[in-house]
Structure formats: structure tokens, C-alpha cells
Amino acid sequence: MHSEYPPTLPAEYADIEFENNAQRLPLVLCLDTSSSMAGQPIQTLNNALMEWTRELHDDVSLSYSVEVAVVTFGGQGVAAWRGPQLLAPRAAVSPFVPAHTFQPPQLTAAGVTLMTEALELSMHIVAARKAELRASGLQYYRPQICLVTDGLPTDGTGHLTDSWHRLIPVLADEQRARRFRLYAIGVGGITDRGEQVLQAFAPKFNARLQGFPFRELLQMMSASANAEQKGAGDEVFEKIFSQFKTQRPAWES
To answer: Which residue positions does the secretion signal occupy (predicted)?
Structure first.
């Protein structure tokens, strides 16, 4: 799936809608929109995305440096969104949108959990965006990818699969090289096995949360982005994430 996207993007998208040469921070929300998210969970996610968008627009330090892309896995298979616009699989358009103009998609829940392919696409669009920024002479902070799911990886027919194992050495190499920072968050009724998958993906930054605390999760991503801009050390990010996890009881639904 991810190989269908071009490794580089057209020049006209290299400096999308920014008014200055601020250092960029690509941020990918890799979101589970499979059928298990139907009803209140997907509505809670949509509401949280709208509130977070307003906060991004009001945050001077983030609004002109953060670039947001959304990847979903569910009824549309694995999909990339450019703001509210669903992109065709081979669209030669960057899914990243400057935070100050970002508007979230209206997500619906259906289909299966192609988690492995969605994470691969997320990594691919980050690499492509970094290449574009370098080609344009623009600097960037370490990108962030946030994977959010309430289930286990499946294949296209909805059957559980172990294909996610192929990501483990790749993610380990990417993290060692500091190419991006990955957060892997389990919500709702995610099982012990589901938690183990997330732990394998992101050994330092994984969490299993009761309910669907999407609002707090997105605020944590903003806090992490702010820390990245300030050149914080790893211990700061670990503290931010630890505080996010320990607030869990207040979010139980």
C-alpha cells in the first residue's frame, strides 16, 4: 500500500501555505477507524480533533511550525488525508497541512484493522516530506507519529495477522536513527495481546488507556511538539508521556 505513494512530492507542495521559513515539525495522526470504533468512540474522536484544531490555530509557537497529516485504517482501507480531503492512493499531493490552516476530516468507522500498512504509510509520508523540506532548503524538527487503536492488526479480510512483526526491526532502526518519534496508544477495550503489539512498536512510548481520552492524547502530542521545538532531551518527552499515562483514572468512561 505504502509503495504506491511517490518517494518525493511535486515542488509546488514543498512550501505549502507557510508565510515564513520557520523550521517545520511534521506530525502524523495514524488513526484506527475500523468498525469497532463505531458510535460514541468515533464521535469522541471527531470532537477531540475539532477542539485540538482550534487550539493549534491559537498556539503561536505551533501554528506556524507544525504540519499535520492524517492516516486512517478502516472502511476506506489505508488512507491519507490532506486536512478534510481524502487523497487518492497515488495522489501526487502532500498530505501535510500547516497547523494554522489545518481542518480535520470528518471520520466514520467501518471495515478492518490494517494497522501494519497504515503505520508503513505513515513512515513513508514522513520520509517523503523530510526529503521535500531538504530539497527546499528548509529545516525540520524530529517528526512525530501517533498510532491510536482499539484492536489488533488484521489482513484485508478481517482475520488476525502476524504481518506486523515485519515492522519491529524497521521501527527499532528508525528510532535509533532518531528519524521520528513514535507513540503507540491503545484505547477502549484493547486486549493484552493488543497492548503487546503496541509495546513492540514503541517500547518507550506506548500506553493502554481506559475509555477514549482522545482530547488528552492530542494535548499530549502538542506538549511533545512544544518540547521538540525547545530542543528538549529524551527525559522531558518521557516525563510528558508519563504524566499523560498517569492521568488515566480521570478519563475512564
So the answer is: none
Q: 118-173, pLDDT tens digit by residue?
A: 999 999 999 999 999 999 999 999 999 999 999 999 999 999 999 999 999 999 99
**Cell, residue 43:** 464521535
Cβ neighbourhood burial of 59 (10 Å; 0-12, 13-18, 19+) = middle
Radius of gyration of the chain (CA): 17
Which of 220, 234, 236 has its CA nearest to residue 55? 220
- Count the Cβ atoms, other than its own, within 10 Å of residue 220: 22
Dihedrals φ, ψ of 140, to 5°?
-145, 155
28 membership: H or E segment, kind and range: strand 25-33
For residues 111 and 152, what is the distance between their CA atoms, to the nearest angstrom?
Answer: 13
C-alpha 155/C-alpha 113 separation (Å) is: 7
Contact predicate 201/147, CB 8 Å: yes
Alpha helices in the chain, H assignment, sequence order:
40-58, 60-63, 115-135, 167-176, 192-201, 214-229, 234-246
Which secondary structure element, helix H or strand E, spans residue 107, and what is its range?
none
